[in-house]
Amino acid sequence: MHLFYTPDIDASHPMYFLNEEESKHCIRVLRLQVGDRVQLIDGRGGLYNAEISEAHPKRTILKINSVQTGFGKRNHYLHIAIAPTKNIERFEWFLEKATEIGIDEITPIICQRSERKEVKIERSAKIITSAIKQSLKAYHPILNAPIAFNQFVKQQFEGQKFIAHCMDESKTGLAAEVEKQSAYVILIGPEGDFSPAEVEGALQNGFKAITLGESRLRTETAALEACFEINFLNRK
Amino acid sequence: MHLFYTPDIDASHPMYFLNEEESKHCIRVLRLQVGDRVQLIDGRGGLYNAEISEAHPKRTILKINSVQTGFGKRNHYLHIAIAPTKNIERFEWFLEKATEIGIDEITPIICQRSERKEVKIERSAKIITSAIKQSLKAYHPILNAPIAFNQFVKQQFEGQKFIAHCMDESKTGLAAEVEKQSAYVILIGPEGDFSPAEVEGALQNGFKAITLGESRLRTETAALEACFEINFLNRK
């Protein structure tokens, strides 16, 4: 069934008007007609079953038949702060995959050794949106604006805080550290890893050093490994 | 340090001659000189420390200083049989990521609902090779030629056999099924999932149905999830 992302929907209202772009897509591209059923997700856990009551190419009207709230609600909260990769496609690939597997919040962090200092947030957000539609996720992950590493680690966070650096030090894995059904913030560094000063700064701010296994992973692979592990460890 | 993939190297020989292409890359592109140190991997677990003894642009001679065998040898054997994705980039992305995380053998399987019936094996093998160099893996995963699903499931395999289909049936996760430090074959279906007949055929041939979690995953993401889980469950 066709799915639309409608963050502005009001659950208490029996009707919803698709905007001009979505209406055009719905009627001209998908060629849907009155009575055809569609699904809507609001990005806040709401999954709506609806049908087309007026097939207008600029102002399609949908009748809401049922609403399910908290659809696919997860039992933990995962926030990954990752240094955007030099090749932006690798970062965008991470956004898509992490959204499929399960993530709540992503913050691009600019580190001392970051080769990339900026991210097109609108473009990245669109990738996340298409991923939630593809994988039928009713919650839209939050994508924050890029922030300097040193500022980020000084912020207050709930739950557990980890840094996955590559320096030779004794580190434990998430399996040994994670308190289940909690909130987690995990720092993933750039191609050249975090600087020793950054690692020190993170530890001083209460982040615990962890290892993601023996393999030498690219930045985006390490971030996805962390995402897999947290979801896997919290699986019922 | 610069790394070269040299599958034809003879561990008993103190010298190695880079082929014309690698020699050109080594001398003209990397501009390495006599005495510069490089590393070689043979794809069979051998990691070699060498230095340039003759910087010839067509026939560079390397002096082998030390050899380490069984480098990064893993404690299990993972064979993933995956239906190549319609968009080949997604399949190639899986090859790169699975190689980084850890995989031993990959077989493209052509299923009833496969939109793609062929794979450029040479091109795919190159992607795996660059991934082992990037992630310093001394073992080169085996990439088999595409084979029809029905033929594949009739073959003999050592260890445990799983099929990750999406049909509504009671399935357990790998965490409950996996015998550690074993060999595993895992079947991952195409965009439209396996057909009921294919699932039945796999079960009849001793494959066990498993779930990879609650999320609706793309083909390449499901295959990588399986790769993550097997490696994670076998982590020391």
Report on the structure:
Two copies of one chain form a homodimer. The first copy, chain A, is of the alpha/beta class and 236 residues long. Chain A has seven helices and 13 strands. The first copy, chain A, folds into two domains: 2-68, Ribosomal Protein L25, Chain P, CATH 2.40.240.20; 77-233, SPOUT methyltransferase, trefoil knot domain (Alpha/beta knot, 3-Layer(aba) Sandwich), CATH 3.40.1280.10. Chain A has helices at residues 20-29, 88-101, 121-134, 149-154, 174-177, 196-204, 219-233; strands at residues 2-5, 15-17, 37-41, 47-54, 61-68, 77-82, 105-110, 142-143, 147-148, 160-164, 172-173, 183-188, 208-211. In chain A, strands 6, 7, 8, 9, 10, 11, 12 and 13 form an eight-stranded parallel sheet that branches. The two termini of chain A are 28 Å apart. The interface between A and B is medium-sized, with 26 and 26 residues. Chains A, B: Residues 77-227 form the Ribosomal RNA small subunit methyltransferase E methyltransferase domain. Chains A, B: This is Ribosomal RNA small subunit methyltransferase E. Chains A, B: It catalyses: uridine(1498) in 16S rRNA + S-adenosyl-L-methionine = N(3)-methyluridine(1498) in 16S rRNA + S-adenosyl-L-homocysteine + H(+). Chains A, B: Its main location: cytoplasm.
